[in-house]
Every structure is written in C-alpha cells, then in structure tokens.
Amino acid sequence: MKHLRLIKQVQNYRSIAQASTRNFSQLNDSAENFRLSELFVKQYDPKVTGKGPVQFGFNGVGELAYRRSYSRVREVDGQQEDWHQTVERVVNGVFTVMVRHSNENNIKVDSHEQQKLARKMYEKIYNFKFLPPGRGLWAMGTNITEKKGLYAALNNCAFVSTKSDDVDGFIKSFTFLMDSSMMGVGVGFDTKGALLHKHRFYLPKDETIRIVIDDTREGWVRSLEQQLNSYLRPGQKKVVFDYSQIRPPGIPLKTFGGTSSGPEPLVQMHKYIDELAARFQNQVISTRQIVDIMNIIGKCVVAGNIRRVAEIALGEAEDSEFINLKNYKLNPDRMEYGWVSNNSIYAKLGMNYKEVAESIYKNGEPGLCWLENMQQYSRMGDPKDNRDHLAAGGNPCLEQTLESYEMCCLVETFPHNHNSYEEFEETLKLAFMYAKAVTLGLPHWDETAKVMARNRRIGCSMSGIAQFIGTRGVHELVNWCDQGYSYLKKYDSYLSKELFKIPESIKITSIKPSGTVSLLAGATPGVHFPLSANYIRRVRLGKSSHLIQPLLQAGYHIEDDQMDKQHTSVVEIPVSLGDNIRTLKEATMWEQLQVASLLQKHWADNQVSCTVTFDPEKGEDASQIEKALDYFQYQLKGISFLPKTKDVYPQMPYEEITKEEYHSKMQNIHQLRLDRSKDENFLKFIQTEQVISDPQPENYCDADKCKI
C-alpha cells in the first residue's frame, strides 16, 4: 500500500508539472498564483520610500555579485530587477508552488496566514537573514518553473551511480549528468559500473544512420544517448549526426541565460567519444572510460555556454587507475578534459591513509568520502540510525548525502546577522519552509521524482561561521546549532504532516561551501576561515557591462584584465572583516578540521563541505595529513585538502592588505549606486549600449570552486 501511495503521489506531481506548461499569461491570472500585495512591496521600493540603498555585504562586492548574477529582466517593463523586486519574485514563486500543491491535493489553507508568512519570508530575505541558493534567486518565480515546469533548475546538486547491469540504465547515468548539468545542477557520479565487468565498446556496422539534432537541451542530450547506444550494443548502425538545425554562435539563450555556442562543442563531444570507443573497442569499459565520458560531457556543457560545470568522480580507494587519472605524465591525453571533475575516493574506516596522504600533499587530491558514516549516521554526535542505508554518494561539494538519481535543494542562513537565538529560530523556520517547498515541484526524471518524493531531502546551511565564532565564541555556536536542529526536526514534522501532507525529510541540515550568495549577505563562506581580515577582492567584468560606469563613478579602481585586455576589466574592492576574526594565517589544519567536526556533530545530518588549507611551511606535511585522517575518520563524512600557495598569477581574486591600507583605499570610494532608476546618465548609457539582458547564474552549490 505504501508503494502504491508513493506512485500515486509521483503521478500527482507529474500532473502539476504538466499544468505548469500552460500559457504563462493565463497562469498569472489564475487562482493558482500567489502574489504579495503591491502595497506591501512598495514599502521596500527605494523610489517610493526614499530610503538609503540596500545594505549588501563587503563594500559593494555583494551588490556587484547580485547585479551580475541574479538581477533578471522584468517582463512588464524590460528593465532589470532591483533587490526588492527579486525578493518579490522569489517569494511569489515559492508560495505559488505551495498554493498549486494545496489545490492539487485538496489541502485547505488559510490565505491570510499565507500572506503573513510570505511577508515574513520577504523581510528575512530582503535583510539577508537567509537567502535561497543562487539557483533559487535566479530561477524561482520565472518561466523556467512557472511555464516550463523545469523544477530541477531550483536544485543545487545531484548524484548518479553507473552501477547497472542493464545497458539502458548504464547509458542513462551519462544522459542524466548531461541533462542536469545543462540546467546548472552539479552532479556527482561513481565508477561502480566498471566493477561489473559487463559493458564494453562494440564496433558499429559499416551501415550508417543519419540523425538531425534538435536545437534544444533535449536534442543535445538525445544525441549523446543515440551515440552511446551505437557503441554499447552489438550490431548497431554507425550514427552520423546532422548539426544544421543548431543555432549559430552568439544567439541569446532565453531559458538559462548566456549566448549560444553554435554546434562546435557538441561536435567535439561526439568526436571525443568516437575516438574513445575506437581506441578501446571490444574492451570491457573501465574506471577510466567512465570518468572520461563524464568529463567529456562536462567540457561540452562548459563550452556550450552554461557557464560552469561541477562534477565529482567517486572511485574505489584501491583502484590505482582511478587514483592516477590526473597524473598527466601517465595520461597526457586526459589534460583536454580531466580538469572537469574533482576526484575523491570512497574511504573505508580503518584503512591505511599513508598513500592517500602523500598524494594529497603532492597534488591536492583525492578528497575522501566515508560512505559508511553517510549511510549510518545523521549527525555524527547522535546514535547510528541507518536512515540513509540506500545512499550511494554525494554532490560535487559533498555537503549532501544522496541516493542515485537524487537531487537536493540547499538554503543558506547567516547566524552572524542575528542579534539573538530567538530571532535566528524564526529565520530557520522560514528558510526551512523555502527549501521544503522546493521539493513540491518534482523534476522531470521519473527516477529522480520517485526518490525525491520519498526522501524530501534538503540542506539548511549556515555561512559566516568564522565571523560568529569571532564575536560570540564556539560555545554559543554549539548552543545555536543544537537548539536550531532540535527545532527544525519538530517543525519538519508539523510542516510535512499538517501543511504539505508529504513525508518528513530524511535529512535536513548541511554546511555548503557557499560563495556568491554569502557575498550578498557579507558573510564568510560556509565553515571556511578567510584569507585575511583585510583584503582586496577582485571581480572580473566584461568591458561592455553596465556595471562598469557606476563603479568608476564611486571611485573603485578598475584596470584591464592582463589575460584579456580587449574584453575584460578587473574591479578592485577593499574589504574588511573587522578585528575579531581568525584567518587562515592563524587557523592550523587541525583547527579547521576541528570546526568541521564540531558542525558535523552538532548541526549537519547531511555533511559539512570543508576544504582544509594546509601550510607545508608550518610542518603540515603528508605525515600530519595521515595522522589527521586517522583521527577524524570517525567524526566526518567527507573532507578535502588544499596546499596553501602564494600569489601564482597576477590579479588574484584575493590579495591580503593591512588595516591601514584598507582605510587608505576607502577614502577614495563613495557610495556605490547601482540603482539605474535614478541616474539619467546611466540610463542613457544603458540605452546606448543595449546591455539589458538576463544574467548568467552562479550554479551548483554557489562556491567559486568545489575543491572536494
């Protein structure tokens, strides 16, 4: 009976997704759409209230990140959003998802209470108490979800296992990664398909079949499926692709932003796979070939203008072929695409870490993933519960335990931006509601919809932890974590049973690495310590960007990008984190591990994403890494390491400066005004340059780079 109810539930969500493809203008007029009152939103419109600018973080870095990545073009007037309008779109979008779910499932709701909750959520987001992930800031409440029903675009990350005896299932793991990556979802994958010794490359027949590729995301993914079919089944015709329907380079991409690349990246992907299949024909597919294909797909997606790709390859600890994948002396041909994924091992409790530690010390890889801990524990400080016994891996930054084909949504809170635990608890409630509501819109993959309908996994995260510890101390952090986690468990029970009528979430908390989203709020990313208390943050912008002019007017130093003087400018923004924060200069490898362990014990029932920076000059060498892994294998679920390096190229993203240098630079900087509505000269500049366009979002877990 439980299985039948689950099937019916998935079917219900399918009907919601189908309904969402109706004409968008009709949806706007329907009772299914939630809207905050216009009068309420006007209270936050600076043009109406005359209030000062929004308090973005880090002296303009936060607003610059917002304008570059999340301020979309409004359909009603063709202008790019200001912050109060982005928040309005997001809140309307998430409550619309909730309204449609209630209507579809005949759940009675108090519309007055919904308005109250929506207003509170608006206030919390507007004031940077919590933020949706970059995916949510960019896609929620847009045609991507409301018209196309692509709810997968709201999720940060996914995992897929290649372990399938069936050829269809094996091929599907590759097409799932490509489809998800093209929607901005970061994907982890394993190499277990190689352990089956089942699949091999066959030489197709001389006879050919001509296939015209549709100029759609689905068309590109389908071409991969057709190509792999021709090689993984005996006696197939050789596929010859026709790329004539694919739009030329430079055409705007309406759904996911950016511009088209033309067919060349897809041509190259097919070429690489052809060569791979020919090279290893009639051989059983190995670890290397699985990772090669996944990386080749990732390179295609990057070149296809979907901005970035995040992949993590998880291999066996004893698999020397896997360990040496990025040894380009042994595998020089992999340099073309081997960079696409971070490679981590399934570490086993009690294993000998000597060889792994030496590899980390030399190359910064592999990372480690303790699947036993992920499957058996929620928080590591709680007793074993085996709740995740079906888990198979994790996402590219490894803050989420995941089953195969499972996706997850993250949401980020900023405890440092709160005056009391009671205020923070109210924020947790609304942040949790956002993430849980995202699980109401199930993705278009049947396997994904099924596992997500059952698990409802989310990751309620924290950033600014280094700032919190600096001002309030470790003891207060532990108290807020324990109280907050206990509260969320109870709230999940209420929200799931009473309001949504869905299962409680299998796991609810994590620490994501963050990046762009934490910049908006002026928070240090996730669990990580900053490089310095005072630094220059460099941001790269295209020379035609409409953000250049107001930055110059505010007094920021802008210069040519030394690597691309013709097209790119570099903006230098001074930042100060104050005097009460520990930096990577002070925080040893052991202290970083201890903070990660503390949060894995008291907060994260999924994982803590942490890249530990070690300093060889302090004696933190391979032997120290080996000892650390020995101790912390019983306290963590995943970890990676990165050697501390000095400036290795000009115009680094971060440059340490002194407190005096910071104050000196700030004397030349005035209030940054990126509100286009009040600057006539700027409006003329925009109209002349015709640069109004949707931004390209920051993808995945919002980290600049997922090291693990």
TrEMBL record:
<keyword id="KW-0235">DNA replication</keyword>
<dbReference type="InterPro" id="IPR050862">
    <property type="entry name" value="RdRp_reductase_class-2"/>
</dbReference>
<keyword id="KW-0676">Redox-active center</keyword>
<dbReference type="GO" id="GO:0008998">
    <property type="term" value="F:ribonucleoside-triphosphate reductase (thioredoxin) activity"/>
</dbReference>
<keyword id="KW-1015">Disulfide bond</keyword>
<dbReference type="InterPro" id="IPR040763">
    <property type="entry name" value="RNR_alpha_hel"/>
</dbReference>
<dbReference type="InterPro" id="IPR054158">
    <property type="entry name" value="RNR-II_ins_dom"/>
</dbReference>
<dbReference type="Pfam" id="PF17975">
    <property type="entry name" value="RNR_Alpha"/>
</dbReference>
<dbReference type="GO" id="GO:0031419">
    <property type="term" value="F:cobalamin binding"/>
</dbReference>
<keyword id="KW-0560">Oxidoreductase</keyword>
<dbReference type="GO" id="GO:0004748">
    <property type="term" value="F:ribonucleoside-diphosphate reductase activity, thioredoxin disulfide as acceptor"/>
</dbReference>
<protein>
    <recommendedName>
        <fullName>ribonucleoside-triphosphate reductase (thioredoxin)</fullName>
        <ecNumber>1.17.4.2</ecNumber>
    </recommendedName>
</protein>
<comment type="similarity">
    <text>Belongs to the class II ribonucleoside-triphosphate reductase family.</text>
</comment>
<feature type="domain" description="Ribonucleotide reductase alpha-helical">
    <location>
        <begin position="38"/>
        <end position="142"/>
    </location>
</feature>
<keyword id="KW-0170">Cobalt</keyword>
<feature type="domain" description="B12-dependent ribonucleotide reductase insertion">
    <location>
        <begin position="199"/>
        <end position="275"/>
    </location>
</feature>
<dbReference type="GO" id="GO:0006260">
    <property type="term" value="P:DNA replication"/>
</dbReference>
<keyword id="KW-0846">Cobalamin</keyword>
<dbReference type="Pfam" id="PF21995">
    <property type="entry name" value="RNR-II_ins_dom"/>
</dbReference>
